[in-house]
Amino acid sequence: MITVNRIGKHLGAEISGVDLSKPLADDTFAQVAKAFFDNEVAFFRHQKLTPEQQVAFTRRFGVLEQHVRKESRLKDHPEILIISNLLDENGNAIGSQDAGRFWHSDLSYKKEPSMLSALYSLEVPVKDGRVLGDTSFASTTAAYEALPAETKQRIDGLKNVHSYRFYRSKNIEAQKQEQARGGRVIQEHVLTDDQLKSVPDVETPIVRTHPVTKRKGLFVNEAHTSHIVGVSPEESERLLSELYAHVIKPEFVYTHHWQPGDLLMWDNAAVQHKATFDYDLPLRRLMHRTTVRGTAAV
Ligand SMILES: [Fe+2]
């Protein structure tokens, strides 16, 4: 029997009574899946998972993605994306150092954006007894439901463009500014032409219906949305700023304080998330991410 403990007002729950290293019985898995979609973000503490076990558990939800950044995948486990600030013996990043500085949902720039991501924490940075590198999540469904009626009407039927190119240039610009301030330097993998071709821009509705729960949510994010289609650049900018500010109001946010052994999953059709860069080497952070493919946003 699993226990589900809701933490945030609109999202975030701890699920206990489950050992994810073992295959779950069908009824237990069904309970876990229901608790996950009901709570949008769910985590399991004190797990001991090999890459194979993480892959096996998350594969129960669907087909696993292999990230466009080949260099950041775990050797012999292409379904696992390494998210870490660690370097190899040559000083190169062992995985993706960019844990997500802007609010985003994973792979929203793909034609079939990710259904869910699962992050397993192996090492977390600790300073003066405090764990650093929190991840924050915002419920786009609760945020949509709380919008004023006139805003709902305004965005009904509007589409936005999710663009990996837009994200790359925004990220590079932000890093330049960060470095100019003497901040953290993040190594970037440069994508090949073929890798870039595999992620063309996509148009999606701003208001997306969740494929499982059928709840409506806001499917725009500051990392990947380049603009709203069919309105002036000024109006696009104005509406997007309004929506971005709304989604991250404290009542819609759950912030996760990591422990080693956490397996945390989030629903990319229902939440956005953002990393905190308040740690650096020699403080070590090492996480393994698996991502389940979703369906086109409608
Ligand atoms: Fe992310």
Low-confidence stretches: none
CATH class: Alpha Beta
Along the chain, the helix and strand elements come as EEHEHEEEEEEHHEHHEEEEHEEEE
Range of strand content: 25-35%
Total beta strand runs: 18
Distance between the termini: 35 Å
**How many independent structural domains?**
1
Strand order of the largest sheet: 1-2-3-16-6-18-5-4
Q: Roughly what percent helix? A: 10-25%
Mean pLDDT rating? 93
CATH architecture designation: 4-Layer Sandwich
Which shape, going by the Cα principal axes?
globular
What does this structure look like?
With 298 residues, the chain is of the alpha+beta class. It has a single domain (3-293), classed as 4-Layer Sandwich (Double-stranded beta-helix), CATH 3.60.130.10. Helices cover 24% and strands 27% of the residues. The protein has 7 helices and 18 strands. It has helices spanning 26-39, 51-59, 140-145, 149-155, 164-180, 193-197, 233-247, and strands at residues 3-6, 13-16, 41-44, 73-74, 77-84, 114-123, 126-127, 130-131, 135-139, 159-162, 202-205, 207-209, 216-218, 225-228, 253-256, 263-267, 271-275, 286-293. An 8-stranded mixed β-sheet has the order 1-2-3-16-6-18-5-4, with helices on one face. A 3-stranded antiparallel β-sheet has the order 15-9-17. A 3-stranded antiparallel β-sheet has the order 11-10-14. The longest helix has 17 residues, at 164-180. The protein is globular and about 50 Å long. The two termini are 35 Å apart. The structure holds fe (ii) ion. Fe (ii) ion (FE2) is lined by residues 100, 104, 106, 273.
